Structure formats: structure tokens, C-alpha cells
Amino acid sequence: MATKAFILIETAVGKTREVADVLNSVGGMQSVNVVTGPYDVIAVIDTPDINVMGSLVTEKIHTISGVVRTVTCVAVGS
Length: 78
Known about the structure:
This protein has helices spanning 16-24, 50-61; strands at 3-11, 29-34, 41-47, 67-74. By secondary structure, it is of the alpha+beta class. A hairpin with a 6-residue loop joins strand 2 (29-34) and strand 3 (41-47).
């Protein structure tokens, strides 16, 4: 079952654009937006299932230089 999630990302000072650029090259990204507020980037991902989503977050997003913290919000309806 397809799994959609919103990834709220806090970046290190001065790294927001760099993180967003790297995220745009990662497969599975539906959108990547630089935002204002308590988070610096919000990425929307769409994956085949929750296991793939978990791998994408932990192996591809958490490992990007400049990512300080993430919050993953899994969509439960539309």
C-alpha cells in the first residue's frame, strides 16, 4: 500500500539550500520546499510501503550533511 509522508527538516545554519538541492536529487521525493518557521525544509515523499519510507528517511535523508533533525508525519487520509 502506498505511503505518503511529510518530512519536516531542521538544517544547520547556512545549509538549507544545500540540503534542499540534495533532497531534490533523491528518488521518491514528491516535492521539496524551503519554508519559514521552526523547520527549514518540508519534503513530501511517496513510497510503495512504510518499510521503503523508513529506509528512505534513515538512509537517504538523515545522512545528508546539514540535516540536524527531522520529524516524519505519515499521511493517514486525504
